[in-house]
Specification:
about 500 residues, alpha/beta, TIM Barrel, Double Stranded RNA Binding Domain, 3 domains, 3-stranded antiparallel beta sheet, about 25% strand, binds 3-methyl-2-oxobutanoic acid, binds zinc ion
């Protein structure tokens, strides 16, 4: 069995710091519950000293969720730690995350002190946090630009003081994967008590390296990753959870597993995007609108032949219903045929070639090509292949509603009659007696398209057969006639060999 990789989600802390992404307590509870459902191990719920609202949110989240550890951030300052501890009083499992800057920049220009003082403050903070909770995580801020020897020294002292998780943030997103990996390795090899703590990654994305650095850290011994949904976070963001989780799932040689229910990734991503008012870029890995959309002809043909030709993840694994074959001017015939088949229009050879040419002309001028456009494009061929024709429709209602229908099926004329709950119901049932298509009528819309006593009504129908939709359209001044025609129109789109005829 591979080792467990702890998923530490900081969407509600580092993510929520982003301008415009602020949430109220109720919204944060919704997010926390979604993260719990997703299977995260630790939720960093806020920075309680920063505002009464943040304090309250950490407290309410602690009450609302049960499984994940609830973590509260603090600086290496007594007051911060006391407030963090107070905010965690209802947590079933609480963690204090405390730390201090360790790079020459932070020591000299931010904290304006000496390396010795930094170690002293770190030790004091960890010990103080430990007096409130057992679970204390120490962060060495800006570790990515720190001197390795100093980093090893402070980490050793923090573990000695009681920290059980050591976070080595690349706060400014400066590192390259090899450098980040080397830092983890250095700690593994040079900190005498490192086996008493879990090393955690916390990478920012300023150079677009956050996921690569995180994975490099894991490959060299880190066993906790600090991540956010959709990669939101300060500046260019934090490491995105979905990318790390799926990279690990795809690469079996990385010897760890996570507790994440990946099928909930997509819905969680949409929830965060909606609540935080933060759109997901269309080409975002795993959760972007185009992550499973294929638009070039070569790729579409490849995916239709065998999904794995162009996809490393089955979209269902992350909760996306299916890959999409987008119709654009670069689509090939295979893609067009795929969409037409779904509409019940089976074309091949010359017919397909001709429709493809008109499709390309249309695609050059129209961005979104949908079922209606396709049906309009192939209208001519559908009519040509009208295997079933409506010859006569008659209905009467004297107490009982009864309909009589005559169809021409191929070269044969057939008649049937049926009773029904209304004239339309009776007519459709009579048609079904002749053509036994084993369909489900899924959608039936009637729309008046002119006003006055000579109203023309338009009927739109969707039938399902073997999970494929078939659409029927018709208009007439007689609603029963229009319904019968739309039904026959849809039936005609079912491939002949799939209609079961008497
Ligand atoms: O990026 C960072 O260094 C942080 C710490 C506060 C953990 O977010
Ligand atoms: Zn951060």
């Amino acid at each position: 069995m591979s080792e467990k990789l702890w998923i530490f989600d900081t969407t509600l802390r580092d993510g929520e710091q982003v301008p415009g992404c602020q949430l109220n307590t109720q919204e944060k509870i919704i997010v926390a519950k979604a993260l719990e459902e997703l299977g995260v191990d630790i939720i960093e719920a806020g920075f309680p000293i920063s505002s009464p609202g943040d304090f309250n949110s950490v407290m309410e989240i602690s009450k609302a969720v049960s499984n994940p550890i609830i973590c509260a951030l603090s600086r290496a300052v007594e007051k911060d730690i006391e407030v963090a501890a107070a905010s965690l009083r209802y947590a079933k499992k609480g963690r204090i995350h405390t730390g201090i800057g360790v790079s020459p920049y932070h020591i000299q220009y931010k904290l304006r002190t000496t390396p010795e003082d930094i170690i002293e403050r770190a030790v004091k903070a960890v010990k103080y946090a430990k007096s409130f909770v057992e679970d204390v995580e120490f962060y060495a801020e800006d570790a990515g630009r720190a001197e390795h020897e100093f980093l090893a020294k402070i980490v050793e002292q923090a573990i000695k003081a009681g920290a059980t998780v050591i976070n080595i943030p690349d706060t400014t997103g400066y590192c390259l994967p090899e450098q980040y990996a080397a830092m983890v390795r250095f700690l593994k090899e040079n900190v005498s008590n490192i086996d008493k703590a879990i090393i955690s990654t916390h990478c920012h994305n300023d150079l677009g390296m956050a996921t690569a650095n995180t994975i490099a850290g894991v490959q060299h011994g880190a066993r906790q990753v600090e991540v956010t949904i959709n990669g939101i976070g300060e500046r260019a963001g934090n490491t995105s959870m979905e990318e790390v989780v799926m990279a690990i799932k795809c690469h079996h040689d990385i010897p760890v597993h996570t507790n994440i229910n990946t099928t909930k990734i997509y819905e969680t991503s949409r929830l965060i995007s909606k609540l935080m008012n933060m759109p997901v870029q269309p080409n975002k890995a795993i959760v972007g609108r185009n992550a499973f959309a294929h638009s070039s002809g070569i790729h579409q043909d490849g995916v239709l032949k065998h999904r794995e030709n162009y996809e490393i993840i089955d979209p269902k694994e992350v909760g996306v219903h299916e890959s999409s074959i987008v119709l654009t001017a670069r689509s090939g015939r295979a893609a067009l045929k795929h969409h037409l088949d779904a509409l019940g229009v089976e074309l091949a050879g010359e017919e397909l070639k001709e429709v493809y040419e008109s499709f390309l002309t249309l695609a050059d001028s129209k961005r979104d090509i949908g079922p209606k456009d396709l049906l309009a494009l192939v209208g001519k061929y559908i009519e040509d292949s009208s295997f079933i024709e409506l010859v006569k429709v008659r209905y009467e209602s004297n107490g009982l509603i009864k309909a009589e229908v005559e169809l021409k099926v191929g070269d044969n004329f057939r008649k049937a009659s049926s009773e029904g709950n209304g004239p339309v119901d009776a007519v459709l049932k009579a048609i079904e007696k002749i053509v036994k298509p084993q369909i489900v009528l899924e959608e039936f819309l009637i729309q008046a398209i002119t006003a006055g006593s000579d109203d023309v009504c338009k009927v739109h129908m969707r039938l399902m057969q073997e999970e494929k939709p078939y659409y029927g359209f018709a208009s007439d001044t007689d609603i029963v006639q229009a319904s019968a025609q739309a039904f026959v129109d849809a039936l005609n789109k079912i491939p002949v060999n799939k209609k079961v005829l008497l």
